[in-house]
Amino acid sequence: MRLILLLALLLAGCSGAAPARGGAGGGIVSLNPCADQMLLALVPPQRIAAISHYSQDPRATSLPLDVARRFRATAGTAEEVIALAPDLAIASSFTPPATRAAFARAGLRTLYLGSPTTIAASRAQIAEVAAAVGAPARGRALDAQIAGALAATRGEGAQPSALLFIGGDLANGNGTLLHEMMRHVGLRDAAADYGLSMTGRLPVETIIADPPALIMSPDAGGRTAATRRRLLAATGATTRDLPFPRSLVNCGGPTIPLALERLAAIRRGHGA
Question: For the whole model, what pTM was predicted?
Answer without folding.
Answer: 0.87
